[in-house]
Amino acid sequence: MQARTLIQEALRQVRERFPDLSMEHVFLLLVRLLADGLRTSPEAVLADLRQDVPPSVEARFRAAVDRWLGGWPIQYVLGTWGFWDLADLVVPTGVFIPRPETETLVEAVLDLWPDQAWAGAIVDVGTGVGALAIALARVYPRCRVWAVDLSLTAVRAARQNAERYGVHDRVHVWCGNWLDATPPRPLWDLIIANPPYMTRREWRQAPPEVRDYEPPAALFHPRGPAYVYTTLGRQAKRRLRPGGVLVVEVGASQASRVIEWLSRLGGRCIGQWQDLLGHVRCVAWQWSTASPYE
Q: Where are the domains of the chain?
């Protein structure tokens, strides 16, 4: 079967199953999926849509589309996903999927430290596939970056991605529970985290592709978001150097509550950043009067 016909058939199936998706976006995802099977680039597929697809590749392509139609997140179907300027982060099944709103945290750090010659010490808490840690290591080539996650699968993926993007010598990944995995003394200039900020109810009401496939521990904590941010704040307060900053992602309507929870620990909010939809998705907190720009 020609590539064009195979993609068109899959496009019709996806349109019926997910009518709200942009068909242009779906088309590009299907091209990418077929390119992976053919072991070539999407550009090469687009350049020759009349090429015949070998039966074995066609079978794998159809099986992958069936998994997507059955509810699997497309990121798991593809096995890779993009974040910031990282086009192909490895995303194995069962690991938290990087999202566009998390890029707001990178923008926040760039605002706080605009000089890319900055040589600070960074730790990414709950790194997942390493998206934040690797993106920051590339932005700040003189920084030392550590990344921690409780999931051994995530740790392996983050190490693989650090290798893939050539920063494995500066991004140190290990398995542990938040900042408990680090000594309780001032080590870091930046602590960055996308913590599990959903409530249990929000998690239960999440779309099936989120609730049924992504790791619950990366999405919500049984004791709720107030416990999450308060615990993370307490841990960060003991481990930040003078002038250090805690940068966290927050839920789309959660910023004011996160600021209230952190304010009970002292310190002050030094910035809030919005996503493309105008929701505050990032809060920066500091417990020292020293400037993070110095």
A: 3-70, 95-286
Q: How far apart are CA 109 and CA 192, in angstroms?
A: 9
Identify the CATH homologous superfamily for domain 95-286: Vaccinia Virus protein VP39 (3.40.50.150)
pLDDT in tens, the chain (294 residues): 899 999 999 999 999 998 888 899 899 999 999 999 999 999 999 999 989 999 999 999 999 999 999 989 999 999 999 999 999 999 999 999 999 999 999 999 999 999 999 999 999 999 999 999 999 999 999 999 999 999 999 999 999 999 999 999 999 999 998 898 777 778 899 999 999 999 989 999 988 888 999 999 999 999 999 999 999 999 999 999 999 999 999 999 999 999 999 999 999 999 999 998 999 999 999 997 443 433
Tokens standing for residue 99: 């999202």
Three-state secondary-structure class, residue 183: coil
170 with 184: CB under 8 angstroms?
no
How much is the pTM? 0.89
Query: Could you give the CA distance from residue 243 to residue 239 in angstroms, rounded to a whole number?
Result: 11
Question: Beta-strand (E) ranges in the chain?
Answer: 80-83, 86-90, 121-125, 144-149, 171-175, 188-193, 240-249, 268-274, 280-286
